[in-house]
Design goal:
- The chain is mainly alpha-helical.
- It is built from five helices and no strands.
- The longest helix is centred in the middle third of the chain and has 23 residues.
């Protein structure tokens, strides 16, 4: 193997390691209390993420009321979209923290859409 080929191989290996390190966490890790709660940078979301974001923008008050009651159809709809974590209690606690930490409805909706996009990149949870 030539020196040029070896350097290309090393660069590809390094890029693979960096991509693995930067990959989104799967399962319930994104919903843990110590997980990063930053507002994601706007990106081109999938059509499903846009639909979820628009639903949250429309129903954020009802979602908040469902969070207070700890049950309800709006909360169930959002939880269904975040299917990478089977622990409903952890997801609902994350939703409460996300709602409390955002200064406006659009940030809350973007955060949920971002969590949905991360969950789509993960393999389905084991049943």
């Amino acid at each position: 193997m030539s020196l040029f080929g070896a350097s290309q191989l090393a660069a590809l290996a390094l890029a693979g390691l960096q991509a693995t390190a930067m990959a989104a966490p799967c399962g319930c890790a994104p919903f843990a209390p110590d997980a990063e709660q930053s507002v994601p940078a706007p990106a081109a979301p999938s059509p499903e993420a846009r639909t979820l974001r628009d639903f949250v923008l429309f129903a954020h008050r009802r979602i908040g009321a469902d969070l207070i009651r700890q049950q309800g159809p709006y909360l169930d709809t959002v939880s269904t979209y975040l299917s990478s974590c089977p622990d409903e209690t952890l997801k609902r606690a994350w939703l409460r923290r996300a709602l409390a930490a955002t200064s406006d409805t659009s940030q809350f909706a973007e955060r949920i859409a971002h969590a949905y996009e991360q969950a789509r990149a993960c393999p389905p949870p084991a049943q």
